[in-house]
Write a structure and sequence with these properties.
Layout: H1 3-24, E1 37-40, E2 45-48, E3 59-63, E4 68-70, E5 73-74, E6 85-94, E7 100-109, E8 120-124, E9 127-138, E10 141-144, E11 162-166, E12 172-173, E13 177-179, E14 182-194, E15 197-205, E16 213-218
Parallel strand pairs: 2-7
Antiparallel strand pairs: 1-3, 3-4, 5-6, 6-7, 8-9, 8-16, 9-10, 10-11, 11-12, 13-14, 14-15, 15-16
């Protein structure tokens, strides 16, 4: 075999070897989907006065599959302490593969007295099957067990809880909050604190809930 043929064969072998190495460097990788668990330290329901300084509670994040401790960062851009209302501050943490876990902190910005307690059973439009139970979470912050006031006897799967803040003696605010069926907002949010006739009303802006104003009257 002459020298020219040897050089050509060596060149071909070198190209083939380089091609094999390149393929090895582009091997794809499958990863297991795992979302970090974000835990807010303390209560996730906080009430502050209008115009006060807000210091967000710390939070931890851990991915149980990848055994990672991660930074949990709150999105404070949604919070305006000068405007009364309910604000949902979301904490998020991302693991090494980009999967994000979240947790929500609910902040009521209000000067309402801590003595106000709306806890108890409520009927929607006087229908004994359309009931909601309201629980006090913090000063001026409450949770309804049945946002839509749906008939609990026939529509149990659509019963949805929601948080609201009392911003004055005549108004409440549901803010913008995530739910299992989408992001909730509301309009026509009012409160009546007449003796023996406590009630609250709102129109829900959420897919499947219609546009009617829903009124809930507290029961003795």
């Amino acid at each position: 075999m002459n020298m020219k043929k040897i050089l050509i064969l060596s060149l071909i072998a070198g190209i083939a070897f380089a091609g094999c190495k390149k393929k090895e460097n582009n091997v794809s990788m499958l990863v297991t989907v795992s979302y970090p668990i974000v835990t807010i330290n303390g209560s996730q329901y906080v009430s502050i006065n209008v115009g006060s300084t807000f210091t967000p509670p710390s939070a931890t994040a851990y991915d149980t599959f990848y055994k990672e401790n991660l930074a949990a960062v709150p999105n404070l851009g949604v919070l305006n302490t000068s405007v009364p209302g309910l604000y949902t501050v979301q904490y998020s943490a991302k693991n090494q593969y980009g999967f994000i876990g979240t947790a929500n902190l609910y902040v009521a910005v209000t000067n309402i007295s801590d003595s106000l307690d709306l806890s108890g059973w409520y009927l929607r439009n006087g229908n004994t099957a359309e009931v909601a139970f309201v629980t006090k979470l913090a000063r001026g912050m409450f949770m309804t067990s049945n946002l839509g006031g749906d008939d609990t006897a026939t529509q149990a799967t659509s019963v949805l809880p929601a948080v609201f803040a009392v911003t004055s003696d005549t108004t409440i605010d549901l803010g913008t909050q995530p739910t299992s069926v989408g992001t909730l907002t509301a309009t026509s949010e009012t409160l009546s604190l007449a003796v023996g006739d406590t009630s609250y009303s709102y129109a829900v802006d959420l897919t499947g809930y219609g546009t009617e104003i829903r009124t809930f009257v507290k029961q003795p």
